[in-house]
Amino acid sequence: MKKLRAIFLLLVSFSVLGQSPSEDMVIKHIKYLSVDKMKGRGTGSKENAKAAKYITKNFKKLGLKPLGTNGFLQPFTAKVRRVVVPDSIRQANNVLGFLDNGAPYTIVIGAHYDHLGEGKQGSLRDPKAVGQIHNGADDNASGVAGLLELARYFSKNEAKEPYNFLFIAFGAEELGLVGSRYFVNNPTLPLDKINFMVNMDMIGRYNADCGVGIGGYGTSDAWPEVFKGVTGSIKFFTDRSGSGGADHASFYTKKLPVLFFHTGGHDDYHMPTDDWEKIDVKSEVGILEVEIKLIENAMKLPKLNFTEVK
After folding, report:
1. pLDDT tens track for 220-246
2. pTM score above 0.85
3. Gyration radius of the chain over CA positions
């Protein structure tokens, strides 16, 4: 009997650990999205479409339901505004996977999957880099890996949470938050049914001196209660702002509470040198574990109210 109990506890332990964020899974996703053959996932490119297909495949594997306007995809057109290019109007997609827990409200978790291609879509820090592949491992393959790991955790943890989840990989963020703005103006889920939005943009280059930044702390007066007692293997600090140059800002403009995870700028930002070998995978997993704790704390509360940051 003792032996059977020990085996049972071991199996339960493996089951729980199996759903926890995984370093192997994180680096697998980042490498797939940011190797040279993906050519920087520029909006409108066949490699960008390939990235969307990869995300869709993973959403299907996790049993998520499509919540786009074309299956998992929400197509839209995006305009390249920052530089002059012959094909300034490009087709793009958001990728949406829904975890339906039969709840009245939904938590949105997002990350953008596009990048700068071969440096011809603007936002370059070095004009000499035009024509070179910008792999965008941190910006934002790291966030997409986090998105897929959180989708895996909440869809495979054998718990029916009191909120639904909508996982969104946004397109055309680098062209000016185009994908997230398109979603909030053309939502496939009523905005008044959204509890809050969590965004991950560049979470792969952790700086132990300052920790990971978590923005949006001022967008609901419930966040202090949610954060109470939360610790992890990584340090974090909070910032009140809900606006800024990332996709959570689109949701903030619609008066929805947000959180924004970001490990900060570095010399490889928007450069051809933003490669997967430089990702701090262990710390990214630590960040995801903190996110899970915060989301689970928030799910103990009623729908969060929105507060405007003055």
Report:
1. 999 999 999 999 999 999 999 999 999
2. yes
3. 19
How far CA 22 is from CA of 51, 115, 145, 195, in Å, comes to: 20, 24, 10, 27
Amino acid at 122: G
Distance CA 226, CA 138 (A): 27
CA distance linking residue 192 with residue 106, whole number of Å: 9
The four Cα atoms 250, 255, 256, 257 give a dihedral, to 10 degrees, of 100
Alpha carbons 301 and 226: distance in angstroms, whole number: 8
- Cis peptide leading into residue 140 (ω within 30°): yes
Phi-psi group of 131: left, alpha or beta (phi > 0 → left; psi -120 to 50 → alpha; rest → beta): left
Residue 96 bridge partners (DSSP): 168
Q: Is 88 helix (H, G, I), strand (E, B) or coil?
A: coil
Half-sphere exposure in the Cβ direction for 293 (13 Å, CA): 15
Q: How far is CA 60 from CA 52, 66, 155, 231, in A?
A: 12, 8, 11, 32
Nearest to 123 by CA among 175, 181, 47, 177: 175
Contact 30, 204 (CB under 8 A): yes
